[in-house]
Design goal:
The complex is a heterodimer. Chain A is α+β, with helices and mostly antiparallel strands. In chain A, about 40% of the residues lie in helices and about 5% in strands. In chain B, about 30% of the residues lie in helices and about 15% in strands. Classes of the chains: A alpha+beta, B alpha/beta.
Amino acid sequence: MRTSRLFLLLSSPALLLFASVFSANAKPKKDAAPATAEGSKPALVHTIPTSPWHTWSDPNGAKVDAELLSLDGTHVIVRTKDGQSYRLNLTRLVPGDRVFAEKAKALLPGSKVPVKQAAAKIDALVRTGLQKASLSANPPIADEPFVRRLYLDVAGRIPTAGEVFEYVHSSDPEKRAKLIDRLLASEGYQSQMFNWMADMLRLTDDYGKGVRSYVYQEWIKDEIAANRHWDTFVYQLMTAEGRISSTGPVGYLLRDRGMPLDNLSNTLTTFLGANVACAQCHDHPMASWTERNFYEMAAFFGATEQGFSKAKGVAKGAIDKKLALKLAAPHQARVENLTKVTTTFPKDYKYDDAKPGDPVHPKLITWNTSDAKSPAYLGASTDNATQLRERFAVWLTHPENPRFAVTIANRIWKKLFGLAVQEPVTDLDDLKQASNPALLQYLGEEMKRVHFDLREFQRIILNSATYQAESSPTPNLEKGPYLFPGPVLRRLSGEQIWDSILALVIGPELDRFKLKRADDIRKLDIPQEQLTAEIITAKANELGLLSKGGKKNLSIGKGGGNVNEDDFEGGKPPHFEGVMMARASELTQPSKESHFLRNFGQSDRQIADSNSTEGGVPQILMLMNGQIQKIVGSEKALVLRETNKLQKTEDQIRYLYLSFLGRMPSESDISTTRAMMTSGLTSKDLTWVFLNTREFLFVQ
Amino acid sequence: MRDPLLSLDSYSRRLFLERCAHAAFGLSVLPAFGADPQSSSSPSKSAAAPSASPSTGPGFGSAKRVIFLQLRGGMSHIDTFDPKQGASKGPKGAISTKGHFQVSEFLPKTAEIADKICVIRSMTAKVGVHASATYLMRTGYEQRGTIKHPMLGAWAQHYLGASHETLPSSVAINHNAEHGNGFFPAVFSPLPIIDPDAGLQFSVPYAGMKMVEDRLKLVNQIDSTFRQRFPDENVSAYNDFYENTVRLMKSTELKAFNIGEEPESLKQSYGSSKLGRGCLLARRLIEHGVRFVEVSSGGWDMHNNLEDAMEDTGAAFDKAYAALIRDLDSKGLLSSTLVIVASEFGRKPEFSGSGRGHYPKVFSTVLAGAGVKRGFVHGSSDAAGAEPVGEGVTVGHFHATIGWAAGLPLDKIVSAPNGRPFTVGNKSKPILNVFA
């Protein structure tokens, strides 16, 4: 049935137009240079390119943009945007291409065997769990809903009509695995992962007092692009030392400057699922955490100064002190190691084992008495105060930490299935409470086996039959655990809806515009001992900060909520209805409360994991009468331009269904829609209709 | 009025209630008007605290509606409701009022209605930073990095249910909602009105109501296969949100958002400031059944040029506030409406340059209406306006007092999704002395 409908479409003149869609989608890619992280690099350095796309050149200057498919001795097989494959002789290309090809090998679907084996093991464990409850898995998902789900989960947006069409039309038996690989290597993946982390890590632009977290944010993006493994990434968050104007990862501790206990509470719940919020003030009533445990953990950060120090020695010189301070101070916010632990028991400490004000000695928590024997607990002593955070980080990110691997595995599972194996993800104190403990344990083991490579871990899950099953309606967890017969039907996140609207309005070009706001801040990164009025004046002049009437403000990024179109790499993002069309990851963090993203549940970044998919009247008013329906229905929008190129009403209807819902319309869909068009509804009106369907707002 | 709960068959009703009960997990709809709120809208378990005291006494439940004026930046107590002589004296002196107490000369119109209001002059707090102080004043709790506390409107909706079938129970005017729902479901979040003159954003049907309804029919047809396949609570919640929205758009109650319908002379009495427009809109909204309206006004961070700023921002407040109290009184609404004037903190007794710095140690708030004593002053600051005399009124006490007036059970504990227990006013006692 589907084939014949496709055939119908292919045999119509629309084919040419669909082909033109593909070529319209093919935008020159900027050079996929390997992402680099600034600062001292950890031992684990990945220099692989972030994308298999590359501009291949021969010594005569001929160039072609193409994606690396495979490496075959002295030849590469590449595919251009129009889908054509070519075999190129590497010896006839420029040397840089050979280097690229060698490095990009890591991106290629290499050994598929372990992925498939691991996915099969997951399926078996899920099946066992379902069988115990006399349940069975959902049927496999069809191609069309699969491609939509995969784009949303991996690239953070719906596929374009062209992308659905291309996928459904392919007869390659490995097309699912290949699409998974392609999307995991795409820029959309990086954007999507950034949004996920931004919610978890509570990323905000504005740290107060003129301090901006742009260097931190760009560092995170670089880490994602380099596919830095989770253990290394978290290790850096815990141990970084330096100024916020040069050392990205200090942004993690500085996020909660002055509130180190809250920061620790978040660290323990986010990375270890240790439910310690209560123990911050008193012994946990149910779990075994004591207030003493909490303070002993806090002591690992007790020899760390995190502050917005005043810039010293800027009193004299060409510009006045006030101005110099204003320019220099925000960029001096830093994390520094001290030589002495300053943590003491709180004034209202009410237990017998210590007195208020007593110094606290750092001590790691355990979940079971046997934990202390695990390698994570062995090693360096806690005597040297300057190494306390390092000691903590080694333990935290150790593969044998009792909760580190399983916590991130559980979180990734939730990201792809809508529910975690054990809920909530912030409380894994008792792993027996998991809906399927054997599954959770295996996921933790797999996370260790792939060395905390989140991309590889997701590749495994995405290739499982469990992921590739039809979704279930939202389960009532009070009636029993959800055993994952398939993913859970979900409303798109605010970021997914926004980025999907971008896909409709500007197409795959949406990944072109990259926000880069940290350069000016990096230029004002001056070591404290070198801070003089002369140097600040010179830097300020260099940056044009002192010229009156100039665009720039004295403090960089003042307002902490404005993104300027000049701040983008890859060109200025287009505006529709006065709204900047850039991905959620490339806008202010978080967006202003009046923005579409916030209306649809983007977290305000005050509390970890508080992105919401709840509805509300303001959302519906926005979809029915607000800017967004004007943007989607704009004559300038890609979806309408392409629709209106099609002659036949049926083809227009098909194109709109593919664009918004990622599927071909049924015969009855076509006749219903055609009847409305006959009675006066235009294709523009139909964009309003599709935007307001539940099918658009939810992912199967 | 149609009761949506009654029109459902038993299966759907069960689904509906389950959906509400699981609001914290996923989506939720407005709690059914008139339904037992605690069973239908609570995301969490409620339990009486061990020391539960009977929720009755003077003033309890006297406020059917609350208007909360939040003056952003930190209102100088000395230059408004707690004038001082001597070293602390501001650019203007004190004037007598109808309320047998003095206010600053900056508030001549308020002086005229001072016989209807109750000033608390012994407010005290420890937070002198704008964002944290605003947070404390709006929620009664200090800001944490691990939990978001609800505003009073959300607490009221939790305990009392929705205040109207189509209109929202809470509205925030001149400012974003800032997650006023706290740990309650997002539907408890106040509906934001950014511009009081423009009213409810995007409520005017695109291309006309008929067109919208025709198109929604097509939406329902296109969507029918999907909705049949997924009898999902979150999908149905959205179906309900669409119904609620259309009902609101068609509702004659929508006029509650339109201050253009007010007589010109009344509009003039409130003034053309955003605060004045906001106060007028607030009055219309509570009149139509909205329970909790917050009106924000900026411009109170008077480090410099305090005198000029008071002549501007202060005068706009003076005009709007006096008009609001008079208007409510003349419509017979004041006796059941609690009007609150709150800010972030006070300002320093000493003048530095042309203004005053932040000062949380002592400051003033004002209550009016709803069983509150008229022409009364509770508590006082010392001669310099630097310290509360005796035990001060904390923001927790203040919230407990408002909660008490609104008829909320102060002794009931709600467990937030993170398991931590919370109460209205953070376990503080209400100041019963302010009630007649």
